[in-house]
Design goal:
- This protein is of the alpha/beta class.
- It has three domains: 7-123 and 261-332, FAD/NAD(P)-binding domain (3-Layer(bba) Sandwich); 126-258, 3-Layer(bba) Sandwich (FAD/NAD(P)-binding domain); 341-425, Immunoglobulin-like (Sandwich), CATH 2.60.40.
- 24% of the residues lie in helices and 31% in strands.
- The chain has nine helices and 25 strands.
- Strands 1, 2, 3, 4, 5, 6 and 17 form a seven-stranded mixed beta sheet that branches. It has a five-stranded parallel beta sheet with strand order 8-15-9-10-11.
- α1 (17-28) runs parallel beside α2 (66-80), α4 packs across α5 (168-179) and α5 packs parallel to α6.
Length: 426
């Protein structure tokens, strides 16, 4: 495994469409080092299991399947020199932009970032989150789980399905399962309107004669070891079951397509402010959160209809993150530390802006550790070359010593990575 650096201009968390786009844009905007971290074994995010077409109509003016859309960005990112750290969990992010990661090669490691792009995407709501009553038999899955099994792993989760929710993944899976020979008995939607795209309703339900019942939900799941049936019921405007409307629908599998939740546990750890409506971070027009240097884009902010829009947001956030990182890097180069050297307890200021020396002398104040009752050289060097010096008749811990760096030392200071202040007997 390639050794990673301890510090990067931009660290992107998530290698889906938003993360890849952000990394590419950051590189093109001038970020020197860009690292993408993902817990999966390969980049691409959810696109890798979305083998249906409908991707790239706006970005490429082409109708592509998900993996093909992802591959274009993977190839471009790798070609630009973006580093990928895969099969890796991000354990923590701090407001100082320190990222703690863990994998089987590195153990636990810290990575410093000049800027961060949050692109973790979203997750599906589960049965527990919508409080479906009944036993807990096998055969209850989220639509995304079923999609991965069928499209990536090659497994059929059942043969006779009911789908709860008219979200896009649920409708797309209704079509996909039908193509694999399964029977989709019904799609139930608790809302009085469709919650997914109209085009998916037409292409995935209408074209396959799959019934959709609005203002209906699952009242209970029937079966102890495996789903045997579900009881559907019509609901009123307050989602209360309407008596006399229940129906038993035999099936062996129930798929849930009941909404997506932006993945923001890491965002909260970093102190990012979360919008209670979207479930994602508050962002400004550059996609920066309330924490300076931390940006967010894609479904981690709010759930988009089209992957092209996710990509657009990723590109914008990546450009912004690169600009922020460049500013921080330039500041780091311009500001150098003042280090307490031989027999010096401390020196103030702790660092200096090298450019300020052009405007006049810079005054340093220090205290020694132990007294020298003899002429004492107070020296400032870059560790090897002398920048300036002053001779004091003595040096005592109880008395502050003042030393100035003259503009005449401007060129020496510009070449220095740090300045060491020492107090030695003459």
């Amino acid at each position: 495994m390639k050794t990673i650096q301890s510090k990067y201009d931009v660290v992107v968390i998530g290698s889906g469409p938003a993360g890849l786009a952000a990394a590419i844009a950051a590189k093109k905007e001038g970020a020197e080092d860009v690292l993408v971290i993902d817990r999966d074994l390969e980049p691409g995010g959810i696109l890798l299991q979305c083998i249906h077409n409908g991707f790239g109509l706006e970005t490429f003016q082409q109708d592509l399947p998900g993996p093909s859309y992802a591959q274009r960005f993977i190839d471009e990112a790798v070609g630009l020199g973006v580093e990928l750290l895969l099969d890796t969990m991000v354990l923590d992010i701090t407001s100082q932009r320190k990222v703690t990661v863990s994998n089987r090669f590195m153990g636990i490691a810290d990575i410093d970032a000049r800027s961060i792009v949050l692109a973790m995407g979203c997750r599906e709501r589960t049965r527990a989150q919508i409080r479906l009553p009944g036993f807990r038999p096998a055969g209850v899955f989220t639509a995304g789980t079923a999609q991965r099994w069928v499209n990536v792993e090659g497994y059929m989760p059942g043969s006779r399905f009911v789908i709860l929710g008219s979200g896009d993944i649920g409708m797309i899976m209704a079509r996909r399962l039908s193509l694999e020979g399964a029977k989709v008995e019904r799609v139930l939607e608790i809302m009085p309107f469709l919650t997914g795209l109209t085009r998916n309703y037409v292409q995935c339900l209408n074209d396959y004669d799959i019934p959709l019942q609005l203002s209906h939900t699952v009242n209970r799941i029937i079966g102890k070891n495996r789903v045997e049936a579900i009881e559907s019921v019509q609901v009123d405007e307050r989602w209360n079951p309407i008596p006399g409307t229940s129906e038993i629908i035999p099936c062996d599998t129930l798929l849930l397509s009941v909404g997506l939740i932006p993945e923001n546990e890491l965002s909260k750890k970093a102190g990012v402010r979360i919008d209670p409506i979207t479930g994602g971070p508050y962002v400004d027009d550059t996609f920066q959160t309330n924490v300076p240097g931390i940006f967010a884009a894609g479904n981690v902010v709010h759930v988009y209809d089209l992957v092209d829009w996710v990509t657009e947001a990723g590109l914008a956030s990546g450009r912004s993150a690169a600009r922020f990182a460049t500013t921080v890097r330039n500041s780091e180069i311009r500001h150098i530390p003042l280090v307490a050297g031989e027999n010096v307890r401390y020196v103030v200021p702790h660092e200096l802006d090298k450019d300020n020396l052009a405007n006049g002398e810079i005054r340093l104040q220090l205290r020694v550790k132990t007294p020298i009752e003899a002429p004492t050289r107070i020296e400032v060097s870059d560790g090897e070359n002398l920048v300036t010096r002053k001779v004091e008749p003595y040096a005592r811990p109880g008395e502050i010593i003042t030393l100035t760096i003259s503009p005449r030392a401007y060129d020496d200071v510009q070449r220095a990575g740090r300045l060491v202040v020492s107090a030695v007997k003459r």
